[in-house]
């Protein structure tokens, strides 16, 4: 609803070889109002191709995995 605070929650929901999914939720008044997923690709702009996600980045991403439904 307009004029009321909205809490946004973002998580990593999938980590693939060269891409990952970001899952997002919008909460208002203690209720989940909306959710969605975006696919992001680790990309080499010079070579114009996707490339594997490095292990050090993958390790950091694991700290933000979606915990699942309550």
Model description:
It is built from one helix and five strands; from the N terminus they run βββββα. Helices cover 11% and strands 49% of the residues. The chain has a single domain, classed as Thiol Ester Dehydrase, Chain A (Roll), CATH 3.10.129. It is elongated. The chain has a three-stranded antiparallel beta sheet.
Key features of this structure:
mainly beta, Thiol Ester Dehydrase, Chain A, two-stranded antiparallel sheet, 5 strands, elongated, 49% strand
Please provide a brief summary of the model.
This protein is mainly beta and 70 residues long. 11% of the residues lie in helices and 49% in strands.
Which helices and strands appear, and what pairs or packs with what?
Blueprint: E1 7-15, E2 19-28, E3 31-41, E4 43-44, E5 49-50, H1 55-62
Antiparallel strand pairs: 1-2, 2-3, 4-5
């Amino acid at each position: 609803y307009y004029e009321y605070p909205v809490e946004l929650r973002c998580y990593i929901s999938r980590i693939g070889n060269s891409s990952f999914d970001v899952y997002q939720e919008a909460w208002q008044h203690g209720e989940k109002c909306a959710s969605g997923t975006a696919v992001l690709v680790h990309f080499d702009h010079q070579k114009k191709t996707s490339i594997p996600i490095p292990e050090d980045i993958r390790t950091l991403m694991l700290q933000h995995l979606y915990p699942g439904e309550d």
